[in-house]
Amino acid sequence: xxxxxxxxxxxxxxxxxxxxxxxxxxxxxxxxxxxxxxxxxxxxxxxxxxxxxxxxxxxxxxxxxxxxxxxxxxxxxxxxxxxxxxxxxxxxxxxxxxxxxxxxxxxxxxxxxxxxxxxxxxxxxxxxxxxxxxxxxxxxxxxxxxxxxxxxxxxxxxxxxxxxxxxxxxxxxxxxxxxxxxxxxxxxxxxxxxxxxxxxxxxxxxxxxxxxxxxxxxxxxxxxxxxxxxxxxxxxxxxxxxxxxxxxxxxxxxxxxxxxxxxxxxxxxxxxxxxxxxxxxxxxxxxxxxxxxxxxxxxxxxxxxxxxxxxxxxxxxxxxxxxxxxxxxxxxxxxxxxxxxxxxxxxxxxxxxxxxxxxxxxxxxxxxxxxxxxxxxxxxxxxxxxxxxxxxxxxxxxxxxxxxxxxxxxxxxxxxxxxxxxxxxxxxxxxxxxxx
Length: 436
Ligand code: XUL
Ligand code: CO
Fold this sequence. Notes:
By secondary structure, the protein is α/β, with parallel strands linked by helices. The chain folds into two domains: 25-375, Divalent-metal-dependent TIM barrel enzymes (TIM Barrel), CATH 3.20.20; 388-433, no CATH class. It contains 16 helices and 14 strands. The strands form four sheets. The chain has an eight-stranded parallel beta barrel with strand order 5-6-7-8-10-12-13-14, surrounded by four helices. A two-stranded parallel ribbon has the order 1-2. Strands 3-4 form a two-stranded antiparallel ribbon. It is globular and about 80 Å long. The structure holds D-xylulose and cobalt (II) ion (CO). Cobalt (II) ion binds at residues 187, 231, 267, 295, 338.
């Protein structure tokens, strides 16, 4: 039986539509900068929030009403839920989805049984992928919910827990490969510390480096050629997470010889938790050729924790798309809605409103960013701002033709640096607002 019998396939109806179950800006076939919106945005639905979140929070019980759930952790319930998930994604028109192993299949009483459960669910996912054409953007392993991971997984002080995590990732990689997953994500979860008095940070980071190298070695062995992604987040659940921001992750990847296999999955609410803007994290990752995918959501500045709300702010999505277009696009990553409806948004239909709003917000951001780029005003300003590097001493420095001695002589001869020009921040902020 259909879980959403009253919801039709969501269609593009244009900005004047007042139908809340239609796209006003996301027209999958509209071509922008030579690619369709569908190709640019590669929208993805997350299994954990959209099909597993129940509205509980640290202060209260579940609130969300999901009529298809039977309240058990049975395989039958998980299979039924998978069918519902694909009905939802098909009606929404999302081309991708993402999951953790434990979102889709229940744990058994032994690891072998847990693997078996995952295989049975993978049969259903594979069948539904074939039926609908929806693809797996990425798979991952949940190595933070179970009590065994209280001290971390790859960075646990307990070597057996490291081994358990290895077994879990091995299986998750096999399932991701089987389902044609285009990427595989590591989010640090509890890979960090609560207190340095009980922590050997060097040993923990070495173990994490070793763990990720084992993952890429196994991927090579089984023929998984997808991109590996690290998802930065500075804290929550730990006080300090080792993958704290894009710069820390990239330093880690370089230190442990992982740069050729890994990129980053940048998440908006994680960027802001680390004291950066999303645009900063995207641009920084892009400068290091590490921009892999995004977890699209937003936080709440007045709350200050990882609220994982759906993105609706056009200024934010414009900034995201400016950075993504600048660095050549997001594929084989995607715009993955790692976002959940509020615990007060209790009806299944709220899942549609949330995703439609997020998709429209990104579609608008894409169109605005493309218009800004086409106008070239901002790029011309930036080029002009750095023009002292295109000639004379600047050009010679960039070409490696100077050292401290020659520059000292140059300045002694010249006597004073050329005058500075205005940064024009307010002018440019006004300029951007002409397009928003
Ligand atoms: C947690 C988070 C995760 C990762 C996948 O903050 O974002 O859901 O995206 O493990
Ligand atoms: Co995420």
